[in-house]
Specification:
By secondary structure, this protein is α+β, with helices and mostly antiparallel strands. It is 27% helix and 30% strand. The chain has an 8-stranded mixed β-sheet, covered by helices on one side. The protein has a 4-stranded antiparallel β-sheet with strand order 6-18-9-16. Strands 11-12-10-15 form a 4-stranded antiparallel β-sheet. β11 and β12 form a beta hairpin. Its cofactor is Fe(2+). This is Protein AmbD.
């Protein structure tokens, strides 16, 4: 995937922030001409930025002064004062400032597929904020794909089947398989985990010496709380067994069985999802994705309903931070 173009608009002395786009009207780029501190700008233009986010799905703020993680946190709080923690985790992260985390800490040679943040859960952040603290030597872009392009291209028969049944996620937590449940739920108290599972309509089973298996049926699509658009919104293509290398999947199935895989996705009625369906979803996301090279100090705001994000492989050191806000709770969960 090649980086998308950034179309420029002339900046004037009266308007030191120029407007352009990464691709057509998707992902607005606001670029400062004088390196002004970003936090005051965001606080002063909050309503405009939120309107731009609804309209363009993502906003890249470039050329402003954002010297460190604390400053980045202040930028995010200029949009939403109450940032979110990270519960029911699917990947390892480190909290480097108050409610500011490292991005997913996977090996640099791995691709992180495009996805909506926490679309496997019963609640998720409505808005995401990314900060480029250190760009990679090569690669390391954060590609984006807009649901206004993706969702209409998904065949109707696929959408309708998922809408009828939802998506069932089966996860196994443990030191040898995936993240330990203590890290996922941020507690070592089994009673707290059980209470969380009951409250979120999640089946649970303690396994082995210190393992945990959960099963939950979640939405296939979600309705945007402000624009009222219905968009594809799930983790099917990330959690499905076909997302693992075939030889790894075969080894794990041989040792733990299909039910013992670290994570897997099924139709909500428990029937297997065909590999060709999952491949089609992955390919459509790749076809609709655009990216741009990170620059030091960039801040990217993403509407988590309207756009997916991922990560390209990279070389050298790379440090991208993330914050999340505006928790959305799905009040109409299907039952497992």
């Amino acid at each position: 995937m090649t980086p998308g173009p950034v179309r420029r608009r002339t900046r004037t002395a009266a308007d030191p922030v120029s407007r352009s786009f990464v691709d057509d009207d998707f992902c607005l780029v606001l670029q400062s001409g004088d390196g002004a501190p970003l936090a005051p700008y965001v606080a002063a233009h909050r309503e405009e930025l939120l309107a731009d986010l609804d309209r363009h799905c993502a906003v890249l703020l470039r050329g402003f002064s954002v010297p460190d993680a604390g400053s980045f946190g202040a930028v995010a709080r200029g949009i939403s004062p109450d940032l979110l923690g990270y519960l029911e985790r699917a990947a390892p992260r480190e909290e480097v400032a108050d409610k500011v985390f490292t991005s997913t800490e996977f090996a640099s040679d791995q691709v992180i597929p495009l996805h909506h943040e926490m679309s496997y859960a019963h609640n998720w952040p409505s808005r995401l904020y990314f900060y480029c603290d250190l760009p990679a030597e090569t690669g390391g872009a954060t590609p984006l794909a807009g649901e206004r392009r993706f969702t209409p291209r998904l065949p109707a028969e696929i959408r309708e089947r998922f809408l009828r049944h939802g998506v069932m996620y089966v996860r196994n937590y443990g030191e040898e398989l995936d993240l330990p449940w203590q890290e996922v739920f941020q507690t070592s108290d089994r009673a707290e985990v059980e209470a969380y599972c009951r409250a979120s309509n999640t089946e649970f089973q303690w396994t082995g010496g210190n393992g945990l298996r959960t099963r939950a049926v979640r939405q296939a699509m979600a309705r945007h709380p402000r624009t009222d658009e219905q968009v594809w919104f799930n983790h099917t293509h990330l959690f499905h067994v076909s997302n693992m290398p075939a030889e790894v999947a075969q080894t794990l199935i041989g040792e733990y069985g299909l039910e013992g895989l670290p994570r897997n996705a099924y139709y909500g009625d428990g029937s297997p999802i065909e590999p060709q369906v999952v491949d089609l979803i992955r390919n459509l996301y790749q076809e609709t994705a655009v990216s741009f090279p990170w620059r030091r100090g960039d801040v990217l705001m993403v509407d988590n309903f309207l756009a997916t994000h991922g990560r390209e492989p990279f070389t050298g050191e790379r440090r991208t931070l993330v914050a999340m806000s505006d928790l959305y709770v799905n009040r109409a969960l299907p039952c497992p």
